[in-house]
Design brief:
Length: about 290
Amino acid sequence: MKMGYRCAYEGDYGASIEHYLQALNGGSDNAALIYNNLADSYMNTGQLDLAVEQAKKAISDVQDKTLPYVTLGEIHQARGEHEKAVEYVHRAREIFEELMPEIKDGLFNTIEEVIKKLPTREKFELASKDWVRIMYLVKYTEANYQMERDLIKRHGGTWKGLLKAKKIALDSIGQKYLSSKERLGIKGDDATAIANTYGAMSTIIGSPKVKVVEKGATQSTIRVSACWQYSVIRSMGLDQDPGWVNCSFYCTDYINNVARAINPAARFEFESSLPGGNKYCEGNFRIE
């Protein structure tokens, strides 16, 4: 099981599948966790039907179903079934909050706020768990979009007008990332440094996972394959709303504010996006 986890951590999901299957054949006492991890590895190799099968085995084999429900949500997200994905994440959070009543009625912007509310015995165990981040990113994003939708209905505005107002508030974003870059010890101001800063901060604040797939001084490429903000948009039907603006337009401005704060000669542009029908959002930082 440990070898399977190590291989998955290193991105060798084919090897991790082999190790997890061997662990199951050996009669491990951690069968539910292995089923869950096996589902994750199948998902990362594109074998989504097998991933669903293993996630359901994990759910039926364990009393606390929080983690496998989040995994099942991720698999449905990978299949493009965003409504189902959000539904499973909600189910996971409901179970989690029954066990942690301290945070049941809270609405948290960052994972750090969630961790502060937890009992001491849980803080360190859960602080680095991606599945906790996913649950509260979905909860916060959904509440935020609902508030914006209500605001538009009350005042007769449009999504385009709201987006314009949100873009004005981006001016301070870049400086926050620049300060964080220094605290994280990321050196330089080239395209690689910018990509690494954005990727690291996305992990810290609970935003969609960002993978730096290409590094270079004048050009670096990032990829977002699982965007829960987009899944929430789809589950709420906002992409069907007349006047709704593709989320990638806002993301482009957001990321450009980050890039230019680190290097005024930098710019970012998406090459593909989930709203555009692609499997992932991918874009380039370029130094001009």
